[in-house]
Specification:
Elements lengths: L1 H19 L3 H17 L16 H16 L4 H12 L17 H11 L6 H12 L22 H4 L1 H11 L2 H18 E2 L4 E2 L9 E2 L2 E2 L3 H16 L6 H20 L21 H16 L6 H16 L27 H19 L2
Antiparallel strand pairs: 1-2, 3-4
Helix pairs in contact: 2-14, 3-4, 3-5, 3-14, 5-8, 8-9, 8-10, 10-11, 10-12, 12-13, 12-14, 13-14
């Protein structure tokens, strides 16, 4: 009887481990499938009645992931596609000078500059950010304040603009970019970060509100923040005050996210309310997988619990990709927990998935 029990335990252990195993080539295969599908469907309408502008924040989030995939791909198709977008738009940021959403495309420009070292790719961003430093917005962060979004008073903004400032600091070596970003980021964090839950409110309107008895922390909004933290930290020098500041937030969020992952592997649209929001949401969850895996790959997060969460999360995200390469369960454009379905996608979901895959590939290839 003991022998039989031992054999059964061994069988299920091996079966479980094999089910959890991630194959590097399979990661690349599904990333290519998703990237190719998205490029073929870049002009679909998605959440809007018409396609997004090439410089819109939705596409900018896609480009972040696409640039990471381009670095892994076996040909220059994806780099050429991104360069074409930059050239067609004269390497300009989007329309609003102060609004974080319209800075986000600068992240793609920085990635391409690092590869090609062509100054025209960054000159317009440097010029615009120089203006912002000399003419900073003086509005308060309160939602009802006039021109309130001229500063980062909603949590998604922390993905859109701060990493661009960090890129410029890293590329140019000029401290002024980091100084400006650091002070603004601290102001937003003091305003929106819940020190008990270690999560960000989407904006001031959600502070003090409850949804079925739980505080409202939007899954995707926190996904934006968390991925942005990883990208900021990648640009900074360890042991500096700025690095330690961002690392502290990153570690606090990481620990909380580990607690909040659902048994299925995703994170709920309202992070504390998975009982009331059981439907998967793949854009925020993919960014959580990205950020967590980045932490493992950089020796910041340690232990099997994080690795198990990452594997479970990636397998869940990959299961939401259909046979054609479309990532499903992406919540449409919004600012709060809502609805998602297997037949709905968005370009930023693809960007998040590709970002996650880039770090997953590094992790499993190195094992």
């Amino acid at each position: 009887m003991k022998t039989i029990k031992l054999l059964l335990v061994t069988f299920f252990t091996i079966h479980f481990c094999n089910a959890q195993k991630i194959i590097p080539d399979e990661v690349k295969d599904i990333m290519k499938k998703v990237a190719d599908w998205q490029m073929d469907h870049i002009n679909d309408s998605y959440s809007n009645k018409k396609p997004h502008h090439p410089l819109h924040w939705t596409n900018a989030a896609l480009y972040v992931g696409m640039a990471k995939w381009a670095e892994m791909a076996d040909d220059d198709t994806y780099y050429n596609w991104l360069k074409g977008i930059g050239n067609q738009n004269n390497w300009l940021l989007h329309e609003r000078k102060y609004h974080a959403d319209d800075h986000a495309v600068g992240r793609m420009y920085a990635a391409l500059y690092r590869k090609y070292n062509q100054k025209e790719m960054l000159e317009p961003t440097i010029e615009q950010f120089s203006f912002l430093m000399h003419h900073p917005a003086n509005t308060k962060l309160n939602w009802a304040t006039p021109y309130h979004q001229d500063r980062w008073n909603w949590c998604d903004a922390l993905f859109m603009s701060p990493p661009v400032w960090a890129d410029l600091y890293n590329i140019t070596g000029e401290q002024k970019y980091l100084d400006f970003m650091f002070e603004e980021y601290k102001a937003t964090t003091e305003f929106l970060f819940d020190k008990e839950e270690h999560l960000y409110y989407r904006d001031e309107r959600f502070k003090g509100k409850l949804d079925k008895g739980t505080k409202i922390f939007w899954g995707r909004g926190n996904g934006w923040v968390y991925a942005g933290l990883a990208d900021i930290l990648s640009n900074l020098k360890p042991q500096t005050k700025e690095y330690e500041y961002f690392l502290d937030i990153y570690k606090k969020m990481s620990k909380k996210l580990l607690e909040l992952q659902t048994p299925e592997g995703h994170w709920a649209m309202s992070l504390l309310g998975q009982e009331f929001y059981p439907t998967p949401e793949s854009s925020g969850s993919s960014f959580f997988v990205y950020g967590l895996t980045w932490g493992i790959n950089n020796g910041i997060l340690k232990g099997n619990n994080y690795k198990k969460a990452i594997i479970k999360g990636w397998n869940a995200m990959a299961s939401y990709v259909d046979d054609n390469g479309m990532l499903g369960y992406v919540q449409p454009i919004g600012a709060a927990p809502g609805n998602a379905s297997p037949d709905k996608t968005e370009v930023y979901g693809t960007g998040a998935f590709l970002s996650a895959g880039s770090e997953i590939y590094k992790m499993v290839k190195g094992q």
